[in-house]
């Protein structure tokens, strides 16, 4: 197993390099907050120990890691994992058993500000939903937003409703969920977009077009430059996945429209798989663009 260098070790290395070169840069320290703690020490330490840790190497390090996020696991059980991706933004990951794909991890987003929270997509089961609500605190959750009509987005709605939590989706999602004979539906609807005031910030839910499904929407936290793409966005190297309700021709156009309208993203959470940056949007476009 390769030894990993921690974020603290990286900071100490860079502090030493800055002292050595007598360089102080606020911009550099802002960029430092984006460094992943997954840099291998086998790559970094030889430069530092040989006294060759230069400003050029710092620039290379920051460039290589600038699109990554510092992920910190805040909670983990057999059925739920919660990772912090930004000061107030978290990714919840649960698991679903499928006949075709086996065990599939399913992501959602949590945003918390001033003791108010919003959740994008429920876990697929009531049990995992109970754990998620317990971790956040039911009284804090102002809304749960369902991003499309599949079970990995609304499977735990009953549990949220039992806690008195307001649920939202587009009218199109309600229509498709009824057609799919889903037993529990979101209780509040909007047409194409809705703004939610969470604490002192606005969180956006918006429809950009068809892709994975006809109704797939995204969640966006402008303050933290974070996008919950849901199943509209693929993780890097992911296969095309289930296409039974997809419009593969429209999919790339929808992602391009999203990129144009929200150009300053730093964190992108897909519906399944690892989060990242805007490279996930580019990968999704390329995956569904005819060659």
Protein described:
By secondary structure, this protein is an alpha/beta fold. The protein has two domains: 7-65, no CATH class; 72-287, Ribonuclease Z/Hydroxyacylglutathione hydrolase-like (Metallo-beta-lactamase, Chain A, 4-Layer Sandwich). It is built from ten helices and 13 strands. The protein has helices spanning 7-21, 26-32, 41-49, 55-65, 126-136, 151-154, 157-162, 171-179, 251-261, 279-287, and strands at residues 72-76, 81-86, 89-98, 102-113, 116-120, 141-145, 167-170, 188-190, 193-198, 201-207, 217-221, 226-230, 267-270. The strands form two sheets. The chain has an eight-stranded mixed sheet. Strands 9-10-11-12-13 form a five-stranded mixed sheet, with no helix packed on it. Strand 5, helix 5 (126-136) and strand 6 form a beta-alpha-beta unit. Helix 9 (251-261) packs antiparallel against helix 10 (279-287). The radius of gyration is 20 Å and the shape is globular. Residues 1-9, 19-56 and 62-69 have low confidence and may be disordered.
Features:
eight-stranded mixed sheet; 10 helices; five-stranded mixed sheet; 291 residues; single chain; alpha/beta; Metallo-beta-lactamase, Chain A; globular; disordered N terminus
Q: Can you summarize this structure?
A:
This protein is of the alpha/beta class. 32% of the residues lie in helices and 26% in strands. The strands form two sheets. An eight-stranded mixed β-sheet has the order 1-2-3-4-5-6-7-8. Strands 9-10-11-12-13 form a five-stranded mixed β-sheet, with no helix packed on it.
């Amino acid at each position: 197993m390769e030894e990993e260098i921690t974020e603290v070790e990286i900071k100490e290395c860079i502090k030493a390099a800055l002292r050595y070169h007598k360089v102080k840069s606020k911009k550099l320290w802002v960029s430092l907050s984006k460094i992943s703690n997954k840099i291998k020490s086998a790559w970094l330490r030889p430069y530092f120990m040989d006294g060759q840790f230069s400003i050029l190497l710092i620039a290379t390090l920051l460039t290589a890691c600038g699109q990554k996020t510092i992920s910190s696991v805040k909670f983990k059980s057999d059925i739920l994992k919660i990772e912090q991706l930004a000061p107030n933004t978290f990714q919840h990951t649960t698991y679903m058993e499928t006949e075709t794909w086996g065990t599939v991890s399913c992501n959602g987003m949590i945003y918390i500000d001033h003791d108010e929270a919003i959740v994008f997509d429920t876990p697929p089961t009531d049990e995992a939903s109970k754990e998620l609500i317990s971790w956040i605190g039911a009284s804090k959750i102002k809304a749960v937003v369902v991003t499309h009509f599949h079970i990995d987005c609304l499977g735990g709605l009953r549990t949220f409703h039992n806690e008195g939590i307001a649920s939202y989706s587009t009218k199109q999602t309600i229509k498709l969920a009824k057609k799919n004979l889903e037993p529990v539906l979101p209780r509040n609807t909007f047409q194409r977009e809705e703004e939610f005031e969470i604490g002192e910030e606005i969180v956006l839910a918006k429809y950009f077009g068809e892709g994975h499904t006809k109704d797939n929407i995204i969640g966006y936290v402008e303050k933290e430059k974070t996008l919950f793409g849901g199943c509209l966005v693929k993780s890097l190297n992911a296969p095309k996945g289930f296409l039974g309700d997809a419009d593969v021709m429209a999919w790339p156009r929808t992602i391009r429209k999203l990129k144009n309208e929200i150009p300053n993203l730093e964190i992108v959470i897909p519906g399944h798989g690892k989060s990242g940056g805007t490279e996930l949007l580019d990968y999704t476009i390329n995956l569904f663009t005819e060659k």
